[in-house]
Amino acid sequence: MDNNKKRFKLCKFRFETETGEHVERFMITDRSLPMLEVNQWLEAKGMRKISTGKEYGGKLVVYLNYLDSCGKEYDQATNKDVLNFINHLVYGDCMNLKIKSLEMQLSYSTLRSYLTVITE
C-alpha cells in the first residue's frame, strides 16, 4: 500500500504551553483528522518520553492500517484479527503472494511490543 494512500498516519505536532514553552508530541490521524480516543491514550504513553509516543504510535498506525486493509475498524477487532496481524508481520501477505524475505524477520521483542501496544 502506498504510504500516501494509507488511511492512518502518525504526525508530529508542536504546541505552546501556558508557560510559553514549546512541546512536541505525536498523534495519529484518520484521513488527516485526529483520533480523540486513540490520541488520548498515545499522549498518556508519551508523557515522560517523546520517543515512547513515537514508537507506540508507529506500531499502532501499522496495526490500524492493517485492519483497514481487511475492512475492519479498530473498535470491532477481535483476538483473531490480532493473531492474523501477527501472522502478517511474521510471514507477510500469503493471499497476495507477498511473502517476507528471511532477512526481514522480526525479533521476539518487536513482536511482543506490537502485542503490548495493541492490547493496551
Task: Describe it.
The chain contains four helices and five strands. With 120 residues, it is an alpha+beta fold. Strand 1 and strand 2 form a beta hairpin. Helix 1 (36-45) packs antiparallel against helix 2 (50-69) and helix 2 packs across helix 4. The chain is globular, with a radius of gyration of 16 Å. The mean pLDDT is 87.
Rg (C-alpha, Å): 16 Å
Largest sheet: 3 strands, antiparallel
Helix count equals: 4
| Helix fraction bin | 40-55%
The shape, in one word, is: globular
**Gap from first CA to last CA:** 26 Å
Count the beta strands.
Answer: 5
Low-confidence stretches: none
Structural class: alpha+beta
Q: In short, what is this structure?
A:
This protein is an alpha+beta fold and 120 residues long.
Features:
alpha+beta, 5 strands, 120 residues
SSE map:
Blueprint: E1 8-16, E2 22-30, E3 33-34, H1 36-45, H2 50-69, H3 79-91, E4 92-93, E5 98-99, H4 108-119
Antiparallel strand pairs: 1-2, 2-3, 4-5
Helix pairs in contact: 1-2, 2-4
